Amino acid sequence: MKPFSPDRVIFEPRSLDYPLGRKIQDYFEGTSTEIIKVPIKKISSIIPGSTEGQRYASGKKTLVVTVKKSLKFDVCKPSADFEFSLVAGCPASCEYCYLYTTQSSKPYLRTYVNLDEIFDSIKKHIFRSGDRLTTFEVASAGDLLAIEHITGSLARTIEFFGTLDKARLRVVTKFNNVDSLLGLKHNGRTRFRVSINSRYVIENFEHNTASLDERIEAASKLAAAGYPIGFIVAPIMIYDRWKEDYLELFEKLRSRLDAVKSTETVTFELIQHRFTPAAKKVILERFPNTRLDMDESKRTLKWGKFGRYKYIYPRKDAVEIREYLTSLIGEKFPDARIEYFT
């Protein structure tokens, strides 16, 4: 897909004290992208738009260059021990995005430039973990690959983890611009997981993302370059002919990956669709014609780790989803490992 190009890039003044901030400024100098320098607290007020939909669309075309202030990492179960952020947000417009609950007022992309400080914090977390292997998720707040051609942050992070014996990096993406990462010294310590879904879900709800074919091709390139790879099937949805569509997905995935010889076990992570009341409100404002099924009467409540409740499929439906997808994976990828279902 075509690389992301923002309409405007906003620099928090302090970001230009860092080499990466200056590199990003140089990248946009002389281009048609508007360059703005304002304090972080004024950013929301200068995003164009008089309605929620207009501000959302403008935010998706805005890149904010800033400094990551909090270097304390949250626990990130079940996918990793900890999570840290190099970006927040992404240029995609997935209608179901779980970040609408926490980032609804900030639809713009943020990239953090104080990489060395973030790396120092990673080392401290590893030290406190003792002799055990510590895993870090870097894509839970945004998709780094979407702006990697601008920042190069993911490449630096991959090579940083390549030097660490007791840590592993985990990356997930819906984008496909992986070519700049194929020759890195990753030493097998970064696992890429490509987000995949049925054709119905991608075409109806995952706007401005790489196509399924592009994602599978990216996974093939990464595996050929020696990266451990996996796939996140999320969010899994129940709808008319959902079983036929997910069968088609795994048949296509199997046929495209047959030629790839991965030295590591391929992994799968299975996540059913869920939504919060706050997210539903934002989704209906931004996508008034959405086809997302958010009928609370068809769901059951589950409390999250931050004291918020979400609507998930009832146990009977969840069991059916888990058993069906587990059987498909077992048939098409008998040597694969399912890491979790949630």
TrEMBL record:
Keywords, in A-Z order: Lyase
InterPro entries, per database record: rSAM, rSAM_sf, SPL, SPL_Clostridia, SPL_firmicutes
Molecular function GO labels: 4 iron, 4 sulfur cluster binding; DNA photolyase activity; S-adenosyl-L-methionine binding
Any Pfam family matching the protein: SPL
PANTHER family: SPORE PHOTOPRODUCT LYASE, SPORE PHOTOPRODUCT LYASE-RELATED
Family annotation (NCBIfam families): photo_TT_lyase
Designated name of the protein: Spore photoproduct lyase
